[in-house]
Amino acid sequence: MSTHSTNPHTTLAERTLAAAFAAPKLSPLRMIVRAVRGIVRAIANRRAVMQLSGLDERMLKDIGLNRSDVSSALDGGWHRDPSSVLVTRSVERRAAFWRNARSKAKDAVRTSEPSPCGDGPMRHAA
After folding, report:
1. How far is CA 75 from CA 3, 24, 72, 85, 90, in A?
2. Would you say residue 116 lies in a domain?
3. pLDDT confidence of residue 1
4. What phi-psi label fits residue 118: left (phi over 0), alpha (psi between -120 and 50 degrees) or beta?
5. In 3D, which of 17, 102, 43, 105 has the Cα closest to residue 35?
6. Can you tell me whether residue 77 is helix, strand or coil?
7. Helices 83-111, 28-52: crossing angle, 10 deg rounding
8. How many whole angstroms from its chain centre is CA 73?
């Protein structure tokens, strides 16, 4: 009988935990290299975000940001990546815009005038 057979009574969590412990670990050197790369990336992104602070309000709005987004992203420490803050703000603002647009469109359909045929609101043919 094989010692590697799976027990049908183990939970998914138990199997996942066992797989995590069986997975090869990163060497300390590799962990340091990964951390240094992350810090270098954060510094490079911080420089790019600092350049965004030189844009006017209209240009920032074109990319879905405003001045307070840029300054709050730069408030983190030098080792923190400010670009993730900007991406989050931009995505949240875009999602709110589209939610609002869908809501207005639904309201417009509900409150629109009946069609000349008398069969409810006018609808465009698909």
Report:
1. 55, 37, 5, 10, 17
2. no
3. 44
4. left
5. 43
6. coil
7. 60
8. 15
